[in-house]
Every structure is written in C-alpha cells, then in structure tokens.
C-alpha cells in the first residue's frame, strides 16, 4: 500500500530526551532550528503529532512565517499544511490550539475505541478518520492519507507516535537536532519510546548529513526499511 514520504523532525537533549520527566516542554533548540522547522512545515503536505504532544505542548502546527504562508497560497495551496492528530480515544480538548488557530484542513485520526459522542463533536471541527480497534492502525491511516493526495508527511512527535511509526516501517528519514543541555530522568520521553526493538529487529540508518547549528548539531538519517 503506498504511503506518503514520512519523516520525523525533533529536538533532543545531549542524552536523547525530548522533554522533562513531567512531560513539560523544554526549549532545546534556538531560533535557527525553529526557522528550519517552519520551512519544513511549509514544504510538507501534512504535519502530524500524537495526542500526548497535544496534551503536553498544545501546538498549533501552523506555518509561522507570513512569507511562507503567502508562497503556499500563491501555489494554490492552503496557507498551512493539513494538520493531523493521532488520537485513538478522541481525547483532544475542543479548545486545543490546533482546532482554534490557523486556516486549513485538520484531521483527527481515531480508532473504534473512541467514544461515539466525542467523535461526533470532533466532526464539527475537523475531519475524522477512524482506523484500528483499540489503537489507530498507522499503516492504514497513512495509506488513506496517501489516497487523499498527501505525499509528504512531517511528524513532530512525540515519543509514542514516533515508536508506532518506526515499528511499522513507515518512516523514511529522521531529522534530530541535538541541543546543548542534559535533561536526564528515566521517565523523560526520548526520541523514540514504546516497547523497544529486539536486537535482531533494530532498524539501521545511513547518515545523510551532520551539520553544526548554533551550539548543537543537526543529524539527518535515512532509514534502511526492508
Ligand atoms: N522536543 C521535541 O521535538 C518534541 C516534539 C514533540 C513532542 N515532544 C514531547 O513529547 C512528549 C509527548 O510524547 P508522548 O509519547 O507522551 O505522546 P505522543 O505525542 O507520541 O502521543 C502518543 C499517543 O499517540 C496515540 N497513538 C495512537 N495510535 C498509536 C499507535 N498506533 N502507535 C503509537 N501511538 C499511538 C496514543 O494515544 C499514544 O498515547 C511531550 O512531553 C512533548 O513535549 C517533544
Ligand atoms: N524544534 C524544536 N525545538 C525545541 O526546542 C522544541 N521543544 C520542539 N518541540 C516541538 C513541539 O511540538 C512544539 O510544541 C511545537 O513546535 C510547537 O508548535 P507551534 O509553535 O505551537 O505550532 N521543537
């Protein structure tokens, strides 16, 4: 089944954490990285996050630069990419920034385990795609997105969604900015959490580039998915 070109973009600490043990947002990267992230958003058909990220960070996932939004409009695109939340149980608050801020299509991906009334109230604010029994079926979801014309998909975390996508062999590239701080804590989320791989199943990557950026480094990896 065809799926979009899917890549993860994240910022992590020296010790691989993407936020604190309390799951509080931490400023890991500086303005240069946020500008790069905005460029990626503007050049992608869609941007996706997990519900954990919405509940922790309340992102809007909009393109921040007026110039980049104008460029998208000039190309006949919406000013923002399609914004997608993977939210198996339809837990997203109706006043989440993603539902309130910015123009363009919003998709909430739920599973059959989501409460009917939650799903119905979300339908008033966003398009709802239902896949999977207890959890969203990520391969099926990505295939539906591809059929809808979404050919490039930027994933902005968090740790659980990143795991689900990598485990299913759906991620082609990972861009991680490593900032100059140490967060620590065995319960702080890392770039990829979940159950973890057995050694025989660990995906390997080839390094696309390593670039010094501010007081950190931007690593770009290509996964060798079988
Ligand atoms: N530094 C960064 O670049 C960055 C970016 C995004 C998020 N974060 C941090 O990550 C943390 C959130 O990560 P998280 O792991 O708690 O939440 P998450 O955003 O990864 O969402 C996880 C949720 O996705 C849902 N899900 C549905 N179907 C799934 C499937 N098939 N596989 C996996 N998940 C599925 C589940 O409900 C799961 O609880 C926050 O602390 C946030 O600040 C950091
Ligand atoms: N590149 C990057 N550097 C960081 O230091 C950091 N903490 C994030 N974290 C990503 C996170 O998901 C943010 O919450 C969204 O980038 C916010 O998105 P909005 O501006 O609300 O659209 N990302």
UniProtKB/TrEMBL annotation:
GO terms for biological process: riboflavin biosynthetic process. Pathway: Cofactor biosynthesis; riboflavin biosynthesis. Keywords: NADP, Oxidoreductase, Riboflavin biosynthesis. Residues 5-219 form the Bacterial bifunctional deaminase-reductase C-terminal domain. It catalyses: 2,5-diamino-6-(1-D-ribitylamino)pyrimidin-4(3H)-one 5'-phosphate + NADP(+) = 2,5-diamino-6-(1-D-ribosylamino)pyrimidin-4(3H)-one 5'-phosphate + NADPH + H(+); 2,5-diamino-6-(1-D-ribitylamino)pyrimidin-4(3H)-one 5'-phosphate + NAD(+) = 2,5-diamino-6-(1-D-ribosylamino)pyrimidin-4(3H)-one 5'-phosphate + NADH + H(+). It comes from the Archaea. One of its GO terms (molecular function) is 5-amino-6-(5-phosphoribosylamino)uracil reductase activity. Its EC number is 1.1.1.302. The keyword NADP applies. It is an enzyme of class 1 (oxidoreductase). Belongs to the HTP reductase family. Homodimer. This is 2,5-diamino-6-(ribosylamino)-4(3H)-pyrimidinone 5'-phosphate reductase.
């Amino acid at each position: 089944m065809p799926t979009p070109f899917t890549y993860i973009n994240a910022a992590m600490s020296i010790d691989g954490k993407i936020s604190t043990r309390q799951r509080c947002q931490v400023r890991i990267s500086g303005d240069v990285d946020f500008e790069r992230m905005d460029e990626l958003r503007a050049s992608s058909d869609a941007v996706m996050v997990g519900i954990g990220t919405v509940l922790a960070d309340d992102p809007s996932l909009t393109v921040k630069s007026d110039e980049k939004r104008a460029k998208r409009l000039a190309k006949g695109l919406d000013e923002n990419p399609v914004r997608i939340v993977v939210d198996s149980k339809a837990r997203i608050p109706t006043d989440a920034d993603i539902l309130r801020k910015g123009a363009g299509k919003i998709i909430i991906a739920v599973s059959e385990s989501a409460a009917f009334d939650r799903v119905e109230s979300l339908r008033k604010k966003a398009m709802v795609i239902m896949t999977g029994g207890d959890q969203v079926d990520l391969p099926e979801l990505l295939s539906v997105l591809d059929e809808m014309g979404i050919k490039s998909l930027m994933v902005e975390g968090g740790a659980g969604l990143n795991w689900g996508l990598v485990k299913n062999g759906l991620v082609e590239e990972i861009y991680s900015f490593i900032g100059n701080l140490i967060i620590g804590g065995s319960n702080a989320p890392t770039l990829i959490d979940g159950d973890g791989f057995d050694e025989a199943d660990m995906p390997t990557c080839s390094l696309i580039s390593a670039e010094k950026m501010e007081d950190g480094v931007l690593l770009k990896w290509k996964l060798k998915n079988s």
